[in-house]
Amino acid sequence: MTLYFENARIIDPEAGTESIGNLILNAGVIAAIGAASPPKGAQVIDCGGKCLAPGIVDLGVKIGEPGERHRESFRSAGRAAAAGGVTTIIARPDTAPAIDTPEVLEFVTRRAAQSLVRIHHMAALTKGRQGREMVEIGFMLDAGALAFTDCDHVVSDTKVLGRALTYARGLGALVIGHPQDPGLSRGAAVTNGKFASLLGLPGVHPMAERLGLDRDIGMVEMTGVRYHSDQITCARSLPALARAKANGLDVTAGVSIHHLTLNELDVGDYRSFFKFTPPLRAEEDRVAVVEAVASGLIDIICSMHSPQDEESKRLPFEEAAAGAVALETFLPAAMRLYHAGAMDLPTLFRAMALNPAKRLGLPQGRMALGAPADLVLFDPDAPFMLDRWTLQSKSKNTPFDGQRMEGRVIATFVAGIQVFGPEGFADA
């Protein structure tokens, strides 16, 4: 079916522009931009001046298959993504068992094929994410792995890490690191400081991130591997990142939407829905990281969607599981940055769609002729109160429960097909 969008506020992250115009989708791609009239037989969609942008490419989503399907399934994650304007999920390998063999990767690829949105997978860097023996990187690439990461299980043995990075470099594979010194961060629940002391919670100094990043950058310089840091959350890490880029290393960095919109004070009265890995930082760090995204020093914003059931969250803060669901809250949380004047919409979608797609070699994230017709139509100003029980994810662990948000998804399109809209989901 040919779709004709008229009166759309088109967000182009590649050109850095937004403008009122028309757009045609045909055969799963963007066929024309600025067409004066709809082609014969096209379905006309009046956008009413609302925003039309490339669908979000979310790098680093936890899905509970295999092993934790009660927390999140491919179906529930796909529906949450579609409702949140996420058209491409890059799933993490921290499953049970970990995605560390071609057989497991092929299994999850088959399971993900029926989702409403596109789902690609990363693979573990070491077997079982135990940091002892690297996976068969070549075989995993052949099976479809987009990148390799042990997630928050930091490989502490630098000899093992060096071998894995050298092998990945020879195959052109992207390695994603979690910059934390494992010794300093072990057992931490919050960031060190006066507030942590008042709460009586074990903390980790922000220098743990800086030390982890410095080590990883040194390993990148030694091996020449393509490297992405999953989360940079502290101001003191930014100079090291800037130097690595200035020295010509193939290094990029990301940050979660929670670390851009929340700070350490939000933990409040031991609210475990605000427990993350790494923990929420000081307001000064949050502001510095927001500025780094706006300047392009930090390349990617992700949700770090981490579903946890009630039993793992309704515990004393120190014992509670870390993480939050975020596929459906990603866009409205990002609108906080837009409404605060920290970033315009093209800059936000550069970090949420264009840059992750480019880093992974995917064609998505662009508002250009011939680009995949993966789009989100949304109203950035629409207010609502978030009720976690209305979320599509199986798990409901969101820090934004009961908060006033702005930014509603009106419709989501994948390959030119509407998968979510006012009438519901395409798989209903």
From TrEMBL:
<dbReference type="Pfam" id="PF12890">
    <property type="entry name" value="DHOase"/>
</dbReference>
<protein>
    <submittedName>
        <fullName>Dihydroorotase</fullName>
    </submittedName>
</protein>
<keyword id="KW-0665">Pyrimidine biosynthesis</keyword>
<dbReference type="InterPro" id="IPR032466">
    <property type="entry name" value="Metal_Hydrolase"/>
</dbReference>
<dbReference type="GO" id="GO:0006145">
    <property type="term" value="P:purine nucleobase catabolic process"/>
</dbReference>
<feature type="domain" description="Amidohydrolase-related">
    <location>
        <begin position="265"/>
        <end position="416"/>
    </location>
</feature>
<dbReference type="InterPro" id="IPR024403">
    <property type="entry name" value="DHOase_cat"/>
</dbReference>
<dbReference type="GO" id="GO:0005737">
    <property type="term" value="C:cytoplasm"/>
</dbReference>
<dbReference type="GO" id="GO:0046872">
    <property type="term" value="F:metal ion binding"/>
</dbReference>
<dbReference type="InterPro" id="IPR006680">
    <property type="entry name" value="Amidohydro-rel"/>
</dbReference>
<dbReference type="GO" id="GO:0004151">
    <property type="term" value="F:dihydroorotase activity"/>
</dbReference>
<dbReference type="GO" id="GO:0006221">
    <property type="term" value="P:pyrimidine nucleotide biosynthetic process"/>
</dbReference>
<dbReference type="InterPro" id="IPR050138">
    <property type="entry name" value="DHOase/Allantoinase_Hydrolase"/>
</dbReference>
<feature type="domain" description="Dihydroorotase catalytic">
    <location>
        <begin position="49"/>
        <end position="233"/>
    </location>
</feature>
<dbReference type="Pfam" id="PF01979">
    <property type="entry name" value="Amidohydro_1"/>
</dbReference>
<dbReference type="InterPro" id="IPR004722">
    <property type="entry name" value="DHOase"/>
</dbReference>
<dbReference type="InterPro" id="IPR011059">
    <property type="entry name" value="Metal-dep_hydrolase_composite"/>
</dbReference>
<dbReference type="GO" id="GO:0004038">
    <property type="term" value="F:allantoinase activity"/>
</dbReference>
